[in-house]
Amino acid sequence: MKIIISILLFYSSFCFCQATSRRVNLDSLYLCYENFNHISDKEKFEVLYALSQYETDTNKALKFAKKSLKYGKKLKAPLLQADSYLTISEIHREKGETENSLAASLQALKIFENLNNQAGISIANEKIGICYANLEQYKNALKHLKVSIKNFDSSLSKFSKLIIINNLAEIYRKSGSIDSAIVNFRLAISKNKLTNEDHLRLRSYSYGNLGMIFNEIQKLDSAEKNLKYSIRILEPFLDKYSISIYTSELAKIHQKRKEYKQAEKKYILALNLAMQDGLKEQIRDFNQLLSEFYTEQKDYKKALHHQKQFQIYQDSLVNKDNVRKIEQLKAGYEIDKRETQIGILNQENDARQKRIIYLALGLGSVALLASLLFFSRRKVRKANNILAQQKEEISKREQEKAWLLRELNHRVKNNLQMVASLLNLQSNKLSGHPAQEAIIIGKQRVEALSLVHRKLYQEGVDTRINIKDYITELILGLFHAYNANFKPNISINDNISVNIDSAIPLALIVNEIIINCLKYAYEGMENPSLNIEITSLPEKRLALHIWDNGIGFDENAEMKDSLGMKIINSLTRQLDGNVKHYNDDGAHWQLNVLGK
Q1: Cα dihedral 65→66→67→68 (10° resolution)
Q2: Burial of 471 (0-12, 13-18, 19+ CB in 10 A)
């Protein structure tokens, strides 16, 4: 156990390094964790802290970070506690929980200030500044980043200092302080002299963002020079995300100069880079830019094509902020409605009490009934207060349940997209390797699963999914992925919906069949076609027909032994259904399944 701990310490850094390598062997870390009872409290802290640094699952990482904080307090070691707080802050920021991230960073800052630890003060203030920037409170963000720079000392790495200066420049840019942004980006460039990968990429971002600023203020020659230099640095690292953005900025420069051929070439290059890496937001944005460009050129056919592509990707992306605001408005409406109902009940109670008073006066028992009325009013008010509290509690729980379910689907969707992105990266590295195709198909299966949870996140707490929207988006996504140059014919009833237990296997079945068609059916064909039809049957069953005009099945091939066919048969049995496939001027698939 001592040897394992020593190995882990060799690979770890516990002094403010939040961007360390992920090469630590998680199996070794978990082996230490399993033997937790046989090591000291200090070693327990070190294992938990290392797990919080290198575990890619943010929920697990957060759990380990909080446990490491517990042992830091048990050891009465303030610096260890501050390290844990910084890690907790970073994980919350990755999860999009900015308020929690800010609270943890403030706890770390308090400890560093008590210890007069200048490096720690600098790191904590940087993280606090980033939190305020994410909350669009740029004044507070600048204040803390300036304090961070002021507290630079020899114990803080040069690379960490460069990151802080770049963050400060970016916040100046977002807040509209263009001159200050330019000064700080240039400062970061002048201090960034090393040639290792991290420094080169950071330098390229400084040049690229500086180029974007110059483009905004119409200094086109300087903008072009900086953007081209940034792209030249990034090309060996295959950073398609940044290269595509900077390429689109070059296209804007050409368009401003009325160099339309060069502008068109750069726009298309940026779009192709984004499509190669599956960058949906950038694909959407670049299609919109191309649509506006072709409209300006009066090439309305191409403009319409890119506008349609923009709409497809726009519809598939969720604006989280708008969804949150809408949910808040809905919650506010429900609360107002309940308050109105309580007010009506109070009015009815008041009217009832008045009738009692009049009756009491009529009977001549004014004093007695007045006394009864007093106690009755107090009882009614108490009951109304209890009722109002109960209704308020029910309203809060309903909101919490809705948000928890939406957040669960959001997290599952994010994790599946992360897996798909990792598979995409791996497939890029295996270019030409036989395993590349298997990894790409695996990525498509993961994206089919991710699409279910994205639909649930978009549509609220309902666990049912509209089949037409879901299957249509799935098929169009596959057509884009395989660069199909024709459109599928999709016929699905608008009112068919299924729950998540049926939606997932049905999507995977369609995924396997469509991929098979796109890969093998149309070799050498001039007018390919693909038809998909889903209709509802009695007893909650669905009929699924998929046929093409391709080369059909090879009767001598052992399709039943292929992985795709095994998946289709297994999922069909899961849906209590049956599947047939045969040749009829192309391949024809026919399924009858249960759609709950």
Answers
A1: 50
A2: buried
